[in-house]
């Protein structure tokens, strides 16, 4: 059956090749840039979305494949540690968009898109481990996001955020413009606008956080984002 072939390819062709080969034991997290022989390339800066996704994957494996649970929980915990101890901004809160290999921020501009993926990874790891650590980091992420990025007047979330947690509604000085004359943020959205891209991923991460035990406040924001996606983002025609 095709489903069996796909599962075999996932477990034997993909998972066992990437894990544990991309586990960065020297600097933490997962090495995103590898050569054909799986050795790490020289530039191994850590991008939040990649780190979060590679934490989410083993957490899902632990939930779905009992025989692999113990091994992949270890990878999920490894990724969670990097998110918590390196990518989380200990001075101002929230997650950095990218760190260089030594752990220094490549940019201080933060973005809801990346933070949503980190929250998703924390929530899925919490469901897999049933531990307070992952859920605690997921809720800390939600609290920071809700305090600094939520649009209380129009609903949804501002997307580009300064290191200190202020929405960036106009392009910062020095940001180049595209051929159409617009300045765009880390994911290509014009500064000051809200994207479908970020909000469908918030819908995803808030759903997971609520399922992990996030409580009524998370449920309220989940419903708000759901209505935003259904009634204002979706094109009924």
Description:
- 51% of the residues lie in helices and 3% in strands.
- It has 237 residues and is mainly alpha-helical.
- The chain has a single domain, classed as Alpha/alpha barrel (Glycosyltransferase), CATH 1.50.10.10.
- It has a two-stranded antiparallel ribbon with strand order 1-2. It has a two-stranded antiparallel sheet with strand order 3-4.
- The mean pLDDT is 94.
Beta-strand content bin: under 5%
* Largest sheet: spatial strand order: 1-2
Q: Could you estimate the helical fraction of the residues in percent?
A: 40-55%
Count of distinct structural domains: 1
Q: Helix segment count?
A: 7
User: Which outline best applies?
Assistant: globular
First and last CA, distance: 37 Å
In round numbers, the mean pLDDT is 94
CATH architecture: Alpha/alpha barrel
Number of strands: 4
Overall SS class: mainly alpha
The largest sheet, given as strand count, sense and whether it forms a barrel, is:
2 strands, antiparallel
Order of helices and strands: HEHHEEHHEHH
CATH class, anyone? Mainly Alpha
Summarize the structure.
By secondary structure, the protein is mainly α. The protein contains seven helices and four strands, in the order H-E-H-H-E-E-H-H-E-H-H.
């Amino acid at each position: 059956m095709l489903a069996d072939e796909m599962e075999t390819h996932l477990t034997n062709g993909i998972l066992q090749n990437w894990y544990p080969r991309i586990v960065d034991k020297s600097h933490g997290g997962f090495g995103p840039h590898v050569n054909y022989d799986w050795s790490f390339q020289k530039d191994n800066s850590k991008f939040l979305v990649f780190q979060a996704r590679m934490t989410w994957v083993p957490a899902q494996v632990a939930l779905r494949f009992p025989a692999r649970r113990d091994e992949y929980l270890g990878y999920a915990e490894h990724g969670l540690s990097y998110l918590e101890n390196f990518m989380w901004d200990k001075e101002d809160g929230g997650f950095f968009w990218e760190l260089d290999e030594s752990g220094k921020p490549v940019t201080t501009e933060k973005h809801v898109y990346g933070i949503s993926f980190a929250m998703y990874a924390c929530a899925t790891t919490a469901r897999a481990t049933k531990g307070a650590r992952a859920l605690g980091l997921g809720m800390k992420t939600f609290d920071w996001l809700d305090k600094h990025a939520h649009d209380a007047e129009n609903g949804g979330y501002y997307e580009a955020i300064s290191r200190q947690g202020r929405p960036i509604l106009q392009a910062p000085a020095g940001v180049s413009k595209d051929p159409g004359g617009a300045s765009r943020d880390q994911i290509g959205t014009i500064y000051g606008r809200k994207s479908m891209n970020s909000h469908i991923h918030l819908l995803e991460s808030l759903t997971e956080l609520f399922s992990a035990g996030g409580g009524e406040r998370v449920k309220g924001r989940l419903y708000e984002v759901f209505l935003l996606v259904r009634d204002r983002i979706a094109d009924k025609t």
